[in-house]
Amino acid sequence: MSGQPPIRPEQGSYGQFQVATSQPKTLCSRSKDILAKLRESIPQNETQWQQARDLHGYSTAGNVLQKTRDILENRITKQDLRNFLTIASCCVDWHLGRKQEAYQKFKMQISAATELTIQKYMSSLRAMVQAMEPVYLRGPRHRVFEGTLLYSRIGPSFLTHYTKETGAFDSCFPAFSCTHPETQASLPLAPAFILKYRHPQQSFGDICAALCTEVLDEDDYAKFICVLESGRPIPTVLSLPAKAPYTALSVIKCQPEPAGDDQRASANPVDDLDMFALPKSFPLVYKVFGISDAVQQLLQEVTHRINYESLREVPNTPLLEFQWIDNYDMVVDQVVVDLVG
After folding, report:
1. Apex CA 123: angle with CA 24 and CA 52, to 5°?
2. Superkingdom of this entry's organism (predicted)?
3. What is the mean pLDDT of the chain?
4. From 185's CA, which of 28, 122, 192, 292 has a CA 20 to 30 Å away?
């Protein structure tokens, strides 16, 4: 006999209390582990991007064309991607008021689940598509779709962990990714493009609204279809939406990649001191002059004419620049008149 009084049933046991107190940590740890695996699956430098493309058959123009066609025609071997696109389609049905069709589609193509669970998965997918938007804008553009759809775990049970914390998904993509012409950009794997191709009877606007995405528009989709039909993907750079931050004149700053990698120009939004965005984002360290309605109007007319697909290298510098167009002269002339007058 040890002399210790026996533990009565109502007292429980150490093991019981230990499990109860450690459970929250286990859930938190699972989310961190899943995010860590997502970060590992996203290429972090140019060498890794090339390796991932070679591994998944997405390197050459022929590879890109075939992979895109396979996805559009639902010849998908990756079950995660198949389920992801099914849930995206359910989101469109739900948005259009066809809730029962959304439930039935999920149950038939993925698994039997409660309506509440299906709603949760649809909400998580919309949140993830939304999380792609800032990543697209800060530099990677088409690579955010490529990295997410082709290289990442995007099954229903994973989606909620990627967007549980603000910025968690964004942090998995490298800050040094640069925006330079790539063949993959001419056939971007945007979820909205895939759904529109599969369901031509649905409007592009409804699909984008259902998925909560707005970085690409119907003109971009038309270009996508044009390349697809021609069968000739070519190196290009996707444009930024007209309402995106920093859509005016900007300086593209070079940031070094980790040791062992080449330096490449980065189109990530840099500090305001390195950015010239007219009029609202102009650095506050400068004295800001009021500008006339005439200048405002000219700026609106000029901004949408900026061509992000013909970035030109500045000789003997690590910078890229936008080509000057005649419309800028009108803006400058009007600004000078306002300042001097």
Report:
1. 85
2. Eukaryota
3. 78
4. 122
- Six-digit token pair at 123? 């909400």
- Taking CA atoms, 279 is separated from 10, 185, 284, in Å, by 70, 30, 11
What phi, psi does 275 have (nearest 5°)?
A: -125, 135
The contacts of residue 78 (CB under 8 Å, 6+ apart) are: 150
Picking from 142, 139, 140, 133, the residue whose alpha carbon sits closest to that of residue 233 is 142
Under DSSP, is residue 265 helix (H, G, I), strand (E, B) or coil? strand
Element housing 80 (H / E): helix 79-95
Q: Radius of gyration over alpha carbons of the chain, in Å?
A: 25
The residues pairing with 236 across neighbouring beta strands, listed in sequence order, are: 182
Residue 179: Cβ within 10 Å count? 24
Angle, in degrees to the nearest 10, between helices 115-137 and 142-151: 140
Residue type, 33: D
What Å distances lie between residue 193 and 187, 200, 219, 227, 300, CA to CA?
9, 10, 11, 13, 28
Structure tokens at 274: 């390195």
Q: Give strand ranges (E) for the chain.
A: 254-255, 264-265, 312-313, 320-321
Evaluated on CA atoms 313, 315, 321, 325, the torsion sign reads negative
Give the separation between CA 134 and CA 166, rounded to whole angstroms: 12
Query: Parallel, antiparallel, or unpaired: how do β-strands 320-321 and 254-255 relate?
Result: unpaired
What contacts 85, CB < 8 A, 6 or more positions away? 71, 74, 76, 191, 194, 195
Residue among 268, 259, 260, 277 at smallest CA distance from 320 = 268
Whether the predicted pLDDT of 13 surpasses 50: no
Q: At CA 220, angle to CA 218 and CA 226, rounded to 5?
A: 105
